[in-house]
Amino acid sequence: MSRAFSWRAVLVWALLAALPALPFMSKFYLLLAFDALLFGTIAMALDLLMGYTGLVSFGHAAFFGLGAYASAALLERGILSFWACLLFALLVVGLYALVVSFFSTARRGIYFALLTLIFAEVVYTFFRYTQTFGGSDGIQGVAAPRLVGDFAIDTPLRNYYLVLVYLGLAYLACRVLVTSHFGRVLVAIRENEDRARFLGYNVQRYKMAVCMISALLTGVGGALYPGRSAFATPDLMLWTVSGEFIIMVMIGGLGTLAGPVVGGAFFVLLQEKVSSYVDWYFIVIGLVLIFIVLFMPKGLLGIRELLGGRRWRTTA
Amino acid sequence: MDYLVAVLLPQLLHGLVFGAALGLLALGLTVIFGLLGVMNFAHGELYMLGAYAGITVVGVTHSFWAALLVGPLAVGAIGALTEVTTLRPLYRREPLYGLILTFGLALVFREGARQIWGGDMRRIVPPFTGSTPLLGMTYPNYRLFLLAASSVLLLAIWLFFTQTRAGILVRAAVQDAEMLDGLGVNVPRVFTLTFAGSAALAALAGLLLAPVFTVYPQMGVEMILLAFIVVILGGMGSMGGSVVAAFVIGLAQSLLTLWMNPQRVAIAIFAIMIVVLIVRPRGFFGREGVLE
User: What band does B31 get if pLDDT is binned at 50, 70 and 90?
Assistant: First the structure.
């Protein structure tokens, strides 16, 4: 437990909690901050797979989108309890992730990536063309969920604190996970899967477990989304969105947990900043990704090493 | 009988036409995969650039044939430039980085095309119209040309890989690049030229299909998934397998639309793919254990 705990993380979290007190934090910036933290958390969840286990998932958008749809579908039908939405999202994403992870983890490398991608495309195609869920328009204009009684999460500030709590809990869970014995087995699988198997570990069970955890964390992130945006659309689960999640992890730095949070936030802020000046921000994002792959494969957190700073706590 | 001629036969031909064009696209993808170990996510964008390059050339020269020559050459040059500047530094790194890099390239190409040519749906007018009576029905001339041209190209590529020294060098590089390097062949040049060739093929496929389909910046996004499916079905790195699988997918898609709505067809094809990946990941003709 002590290895999972870090005062620095607590400090950063406290600073984020104080962020809305800044004078220029308008509603617009609060929602931007919400997105930054939400996608940061999702990138962190993906990092469990990519950075620690060496499995690249091209299907995380489906977990995110399913969570959003599960939550929006309940809100649309007048079930406004936040906890009901959360449970339902966990159930839906969990069932889907069980199937995906069972079949995908039987394969490695590119085959894992493509299996997750194709499973996600099935989900996308289903929602895109099913009128019960609004077809290509998705579910629009849902009410805000209620946390307790009549306390609705209906302002940007409340949404921001909700996602901040989620980030804190998810980060703690991930840190406990990667510093535990379980986490070290994951790294062993990444480094040499056959050797881990020969040592007697049931490799597929470990891979399935981490896949499920990553999917559920992403699904919860999705469940928070309709509260902020009031919609869930099939575009949320297009495979290019999965690609964006991968970009966030790469920008931040593989296998660092904190890195992908920074990467996700950086991606959201970059997109917002650049798109307010020019409408070709995807070129900028593409070039940033290419630059990072070519020149700084360790991501933004790798800069600290370049500057001679203390080595960031990477994989256990 | 009427059903056969009026419904089944045209659909069968559509499937063959689409399969042949898909084969051109998948062939380049599978060769690059065999060579660099990279699934090229930007391949769909090279296909899209081919169609747009065609629109520009047709706009200037009013000749589809000029476009057919200049388009693939231009996109091939873009491919060579891309390979030298971005993929070459990654040769000795994990293939994963290559995959992610090509995703970035795809973003740049797609948005670049939208900036240059706009986001609207566009079309290329077919170089000839009319239709030919065939087996009791009539079939558009351009589609027949498309089928013939793609088939001739596929044959030419097969001859290239089996009969010419250059083609054999590429196959040798797929087998064992290090050994080839040891024998004194300039392997990086082989890689670059192969990438350029694969880009030109993708562009050609995009250009040939442009009069039948519509041209828009996102057109590669849907096509690339189908091409991935073809490559896996045929067996990663197996060229013959890709061509066979392209026809299988082309025919399956056009025949299934007779009985199902398009989204069910898409899901059915994804389902076939998932089963293949789980049961026989090396596909029809792939070598066992490649990147499994």
Answer: confident
